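User: tokens in, sequence out, please.
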């Protein structure tokens, strides 16, 4: 692991829908438990008209500016998760960035010492262990798993150490890696899946050279997804067909 000076510059990248209630909960918890422990230099925010309209977008913008008066805010006419991620990741200026979405809660403190030492020439993303992603706390890197089958029966899973997986869930990224990924994203495909599923060949060829390190507190979950329940209450579910994601009513 590399050694970093305290207070290494960090950019915040925030993906938000038009959901001010969720956004305020997210920023309150992360500001006190995570963001205050880092030297934030630039704040980039994308607010999409997702689960809300112009009024909710304005409310979300007010909330962001209440926390970060100098934030650079993008408010596109048409919502697109991939376009949001692509723009945000290409905007990084500091050596590292923290990618955050508007529907998570930080349940404990996360500091520089828990994150930055894991970055290396190989590790380009450091992700936070979460129950909802069903990642294994027993392995240090996020990689694919393959079911072992015989005569149609499952016999456990095999960890594919040479097939790294990357994420758009809350995570820390190195600047050049984020900018390169953002520039290669196909806006017609789901941003997370194309980082590793091979639908975007150029992007997958690039990310396959690196690693995504998972961090936790002795196997404990550090953050919690609050967006799934919110979407279920609103009657929405996410469908991915041929690498393309969309939100449909239940």
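Assistant: Sequence out:
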């Amino acid at each position: 692991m590399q050694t970093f000076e305290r207070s290494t510059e960090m950019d915040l990248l925030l993906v938000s829908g038009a959901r001010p209630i969720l956004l305020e909960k997210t920023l309150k918890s992360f500001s006190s438990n995570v963001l205050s422990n880092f030297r934030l230099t630039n704040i980039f925010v994308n607010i999409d008209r997702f689960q809300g309209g112009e009024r909710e977008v304005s409310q979300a913008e007010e909330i962001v500016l209440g926390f970060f008066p100098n934030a650079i805010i993008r408010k596109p006419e048409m919502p697109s998760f991939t376009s949001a991620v692509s723009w945000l990741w290409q905007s990084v200026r500091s050596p590292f960035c923290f990618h955050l979405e508007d529907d998570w809660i930080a349940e404990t403190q996360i500091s520089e010492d828990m994150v930055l030492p894991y970055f290396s020439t190989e590790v380009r993303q450091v992700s936070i262990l979460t129950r909802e992603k069903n990642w294994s706390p027993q392995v240090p890197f996020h990689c694919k798993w393959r079911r072992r089958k015989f005569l149609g029966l499952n016999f456990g899973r095999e960890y594919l150490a040479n097939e790294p997986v990357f994420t758009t869930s809350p995570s820390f990224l190195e600047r050049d890696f984020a900018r390169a990924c953002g520039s290669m994203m196909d806006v017609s495909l789901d941003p997370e899946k194309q980082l590793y599923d091979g639908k975007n060949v150029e992007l997958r060829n690039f990310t396959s050279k690196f690693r995504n390190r998972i961090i936790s507190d002795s196997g404990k979950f550090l953050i919690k997804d609050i967006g799934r329940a919110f979407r279920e209450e609103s009657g929405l579910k996410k469908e991915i067909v041929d690498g393309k994601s969309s939100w449909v009513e239940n």
